[in-house]
Design goal:
This protein has 222 residues and is mainly alpha-helical. The chain contains eleven helices and three strands; from the N terminus they run αβαβαααβαααααα. Strands 2-1-3 form a three-stranded parallel β-sheet. Strand 1, helix 2 and strand 2 form a beta-alpha-beta unit. Helix 3 packs across helix 5, helix 5 packs across helix 8 and helix 7 runs antiparallel to helix 8.
């Protein structure tokens, strides 16, 4: 798919979470000039994320508090946050090129689709990077106008079952919209829908803007 798009003259980023980097081997050394190939290494992403947090949040901390931060950064969720950041950087380039992401049918893929809100809170807690720069690109994954899913499997029992589980989980993630219809048609005379937003609406001005139907981040005092 990525090669076909590149042959048609499109700018394409092909990225993978496969530590063996089989995609690079498959594309070969004679790749098309408008096809960029990259890989997301979870261990390297985690190391960079820890270093970044310690240089920003941890730079002026007392030794005891810094030690607590270092211990916190050794928690399992740190790797998830680090990989989320790496994914977000790749996804953000979709404004100027096609992005084709190769990943396993479990783990990070569903986390990206299902837990952006939790990730937003973690970024706000541990990073000086503007959270919207990371969570907003991730939310494109939930937009069918921007993102398509292709499930590729081997004709073997385990891969087929994994692909089926992935399909079932994706259907579950995207099945929330139709649940609103019976609420509107059968259970309530009046309803108000609050959209998913890349940043939490905090404070009177943001909440009033949300009530008016705003779907973009509100600049307080602007």
């Amino acid at each position: 798919m990525a090669v076909d798009l590149a042959r048609r003259g499109e700018e394409v980023l092909l990225t993978t979470t496969d530590p063996a980097a089989h995609i690079s081997d498959a594309v070969g050394n004679d790749a098309l000039p408008n096809l960029e190939v990259s890989a997301i290494d979870p261990e390297e992403a985690t190391r960079r994320y820890r270093d970044s947090v310690l240089k920003t949040k941890g730079k002026d901390l007392d030794p005891e508090v810094r030690e607590l931060l270092e211990e916190d950064l050794r928690s399992p969720c740190t790797k998830e946050v680090a990989v989320f950041r790496a994914f977000a950087r790749e996804i953000s380039t979709a404004r100027r090129q096609f992005v084709v992401m190769d990943t396993a049918p479990t783990g990070h893929t569903l986390l990206l689709l299902d837990t952006t809100g939790s990730y937003h809170r973690e970024v706000m807690r541990t990073s000086e990077v503007e959270a919207g720069r990371i969570t907003k690109p991730l939310m494109r994954l939930q937009d069918p106008d921007h993102t398509k899913m292709l499930l590729v499997t081997l004709p073997e029992t385990t891969p087929i079952l994994e692909a089926k589980q992935m399909q079932d989980d994706l259907e579950r993630v995207h099945a929330e919209g139709p649940q609103v219809e019976p609420v509107q048609e059968e259970y309530a005379e009046r309803t108000a829908l609050a959209p998913w937003m890349p940043e939490e609406p905090v404070g009177p001005e943001c909440l009033q803007a949300l009530a008016r139907g705003a779907t973009e981040p509100i600049q307080v005092g602007a």
